[in-house]
């Protein structure tokens, strides 16, 4: 990790960040650095969820770093770690994920939902998906959809493209670190795979990452508070209904690639109370899927 001279790994107002390779602050005028002072001023408040916001210039993985901070006792609930660039970011199934510096929002948050039974913590990635979709729709003005369990889709050229991903990891016995990666200003020639997209390519009204991050974190604070107050009950908090309403996977024929090289084909008909995707198979059986890789095969024809 490249640290600024104050040696705390954060970007301060008098210490302009540097991109990799010694480039200057304004190497890419379309991708200015985040304003950590403004983010703290807008998000950290008495009685609020967010207690500490740090922005680092470059790191391997914000998730790994925040899990380590939690283990060391140097991070409390409400800690947010943002990176201008990640070099070893991970998605589900340990897939590598890369993007140019300052082209997206790459951040992790530490949550400790003590009031919620651990059995309901599996809803946290889905809750984060709802929060990200809501925050981006309001701030960026783009239509978004959720792909179970942890992807956010946008429409580019009439096709669904993945613009964001979510990864949750346990942090000790009482915490969860949730990492979010959002493609903001990636251009077509910068996309890592043809199925990827970005807010810019989807016609976002802004690619200014400061208001986008504030919008997402405020939305996450709101949804997390509602869910926690309901004891993690997805129905009572409105989370289950809202997730289903925005989920592009429901009503589709999908292929679920499950652990143990098992493959299941069926129509996604519901998200149950445990956050599992329920598939109706050709054999007339409804089978819940709690983990696996989901591929949208085709829409269901009425």
Describe this structure in words.
- By secondary structure, the chain is α+β, with helices and mostly antiparallel strands.
- The protein contains five helices and 14 strands.
- Strands 1-2-5-9-8-7-6 form a seven-stranded mixed beta sheet, sandwiched between helices.
- Helix 1 packs parallel to helix 4 (209-229) and helix 3 packs across helix 4.
- The radius of gyration is 19 Å and the shape is globular.
- Residues 48-228 form the BPL/LPL catalytic domain.
- This is biotin--[biotin carboxyl-carrier protein] ligase.
- InterPro entries: aa-tRNA-synth_II/BPL/LPL (IPR045864), Biotin_CoA_COase_ligase (IPR004408), BPL_C (IPR003142), BPL_LPL_catalytic (IPR004143).
- Residues 1-31 are annotated as: Disordered.
- Pfam families: BPL_C, BPL_LplA_LipB.
Quick structural summary:
Residues 48-228 form the BPL/LPL catalytic domain. The chain is an alpha+beta fold.
Blueprint of the fold:
Elements: H1 36-43, E1 52-56, H2 62-72, E2 79-83, E3 89-90, E4 96-97, E5 104-111, H3 124-140, E6 144-147, E7 151-156, E8 159-171, E9 175-183, H4 209-229, H5 239-246, E10 252-258, E11 262-271, E12 277-281, E13 286-289, E14 293-299
Parallel strand pairs: 1-2
Antiparallel strand pairs: 2-5, 3-4, 5-9, 6-7, 7-8, 8-9, 10-11, 10-14, 11-12, 12-13
Helix pairs in contact: 1-4, 3-4, 3-5
């Amino acid at each position: 990790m490249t640290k600024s001279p104050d040696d705390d790994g954060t970007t301060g107002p008098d210490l302009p960040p540097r991109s990799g390779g010694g480039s200057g602050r304004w190497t890419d005028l379309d991708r200015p650095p985040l304003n950590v002072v403004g983010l703290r001023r807008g998000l950290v408040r008495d009685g609020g969820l967010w207690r500490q916001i740090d922005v680092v210039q470059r790191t391997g993985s914000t998730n790994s770093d925040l899990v380590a901070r939690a283990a060391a006792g140097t991070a409390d609930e409400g800690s947010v770690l943002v990176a201008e660039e990640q070099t070893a970011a991970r998605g589900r199934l340990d897939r590598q994920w890369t993007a140019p510096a300052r082209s997206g929002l790459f951040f992790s948050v530490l949550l400790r939902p003590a009031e919620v039974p651990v059995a309901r913590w599996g809803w946290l990635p889905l809750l984060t998906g709802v929060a990200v979709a809501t925050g981006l729709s309001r701030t960026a003005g783009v239509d978004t959809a959720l792909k179970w369990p942890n992807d956010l889709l946008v429409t580019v050229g009439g096709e669904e493209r993945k613009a964001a991903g979510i990864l949750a990891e346990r942090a000790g016995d009482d915490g969860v670190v949730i990492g979010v990666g959002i493609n903001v200003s990636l251009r077509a020639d910068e996309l890592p795979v043809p199925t990827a997209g970005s807010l810019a390519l989807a016609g976002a009204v802004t690619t200014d990452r400061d208001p986008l991050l504030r919008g997402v974190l405020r939305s996450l604070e709101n949804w997390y508070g509602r869910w926690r107050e309901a004891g993690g009950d997805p129905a009572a908090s409105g989370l289950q209904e809202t997730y289903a309403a925005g989920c592009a996977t429901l009503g589709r024929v999908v292929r679920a690639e499950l652990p143990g090289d098992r493959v299941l084909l069926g129509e996604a008909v519901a998200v149950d109370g445990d956050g599992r995707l329920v598939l109706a198979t050709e054999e007339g059986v409804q089978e819940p899927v709690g983990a696996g890789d989901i591929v949208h095969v085709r829409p269901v024809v009425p």
